[in-house]
Write a structure and sequence with these properties.
The structure holds two protein chains of two kinds. By secondary structure, chain A is mainly β. Chain A has no helices and eleven strands. In chain A, strands 2, 4, 5, 6, 9, 10 and 11 form a seven-stranded mixed β-sheet that branches. A four-stranded antiparallel β-sheet of chain A has the order 1-3-8-7, with no helix packed on it. Chain B has strands at 9-12, 18-23, 34-39, 46-49, 63-68, 71-76, 85-93, 98-101, 105-109. In chain B, the strands form two sheets. In chain B, strands 1, 3, 4, 7, 8 and 9 form a six-stranded mixed β-sheet that branches. Classes of the chains: A mainly beta, B mainly beta.
Chain lengths: 119, 110
C-alpha cells in the first residue's frame, strides 16, 4: 500500500518561496507506471492541480498554466521523495497542499499541509 | 470556477439512494475516464471510484459510478450517516493537459 508523508512549513511570507516535500513508502518515485502530483485546495479555488513529475526512461515535469512561471516539481531518487517549490507567493496561494500518486487516477494522497501566506 | 460542474449540495435520509451529477466537456469527461473522490471533514480526498465505474479495494458496493458522453454520475444506495462528506469528480483534461475537478457536492444525511 502506497503511503505519502508530507513535510514543510505552514507559514510563508509574501514574495518568498513555498517549499514542500512528499516522502513515498510502498512505491518508488522512479516507477515507470506512476506519476507524482501536487494539488491544492482553497475555498476560493476548490481543488486545483498544480503539476506532476514522472519517469519514462527520463524525467518529465509538467505544470498547470496558472502557476507555470513560478513552480518547480522535482524528484529526489536518493530519498524516494518529490518536492514542490512555488516562488513569489501571495496571500492568494494560501491553501491546503496535497501530494498524490497518479497517473490514471489519484489513488493515494498525502495528509495535506495548510500553508498560509502572511507577513 | 471549477472546470467540471457539480451541484453544491445533496441530501437524503438513511437507506435512501442519492445521485450526484458531474458535467464536463469533450476535452475532459468526453474523452477520458472519470474518477470520484470522497473527502470527510478535515481529511484528504480518498479515491472512491476510478475509470468511471470501478471501486478500489475496500470501497462498499453501495457506491457506483457511470458516464455518458460529457457527463458522469455517482450513486450512493442504502445511505448511511458515515457517508456525510464532500464528493468530487475528477478527469484528465486533454486541452489543459492536467487534472480538472468539480467544485464538490456536500452530502448531508438527514
Amino acid at each position: 500500500q502506497v503511503q505519502l508523508q508530507q513535510s514543510g512549513p505552514g507559514l510563508v511570507k509574501p514574495s518568498q518561496t513555498l517549499s514542500l516535500t512528499c516522502a513515498i513508502s510502498g512505491d518508488s518515485v522512479s516507477n515507470n507506471n506512476a506519476a507524482w502530483n501536487w494539488i491544492r485546495q482553497s475555498p476560493s479555488r476548490g481543488l486545483e492541480w498544480l503539476g506532476r513529475t514522472y519517469y519514462r526512461s527520463k524525467w518529465y515535469s509538467v505544470y498547470a498554466v496558472s502557476v507555470k512561471s513560478r513552480i518547480t516539481i522535482k524528484p529526489d531518487t536518493s530519498k524516494n521523495q518529490f518536492s514542490l517549490q512555488l516562488n513569489s507567493v501571495t496571500p492568494d496561494d494560501t491553501a491546503v497542499y496535497y501530494c498524490a500518486r497518479g497517473p490514471s487516477a489519484l489513488t493515494s494522497w498525502g495528509q495535506g499541509t495548510l500553508v498560509t501566506v502572511s507577513s | 470556477q471549477s472546470v467540471l460542474t457539480q451541484p453544491p449540495s445533496a441530501s437524503g435520509t438513511p437507506g435512501q439512494r442519492v445521485i450526484i451529477s458531474c458535467s464536463g466537456s469533450s476535452s475532459n469527461i468526453g474523452g477520458n475516464t472519470v474518477n470520484w473522490h470522497q473527502q470527510l471533514p478535515g481529511t484528504a480526498p480518498k479515491l472512491l471510484i476510478n475509470s468511471n465505474n470501478q471501486r478500489p479495494s475496500g470501497v462498499p458496493d453501495r457506491f457506483s459510478g457511470s458516464k455518458s458522453g460529457t457527463s458522469a454520475s455517482l450513486a450512493i444506495s442504502g445511505l448511511q450517516s458515515e457517508d456525510e462528506a464532500d464528493y468530487y469528480c475528477a478527469a484528465w483534461d486533454d486541452s489543459l493537459k492536467g487534472w480538472v475537478f468539480g467544485g464538490g457536492t456536500k452530502l448531508t444525511v438527514l
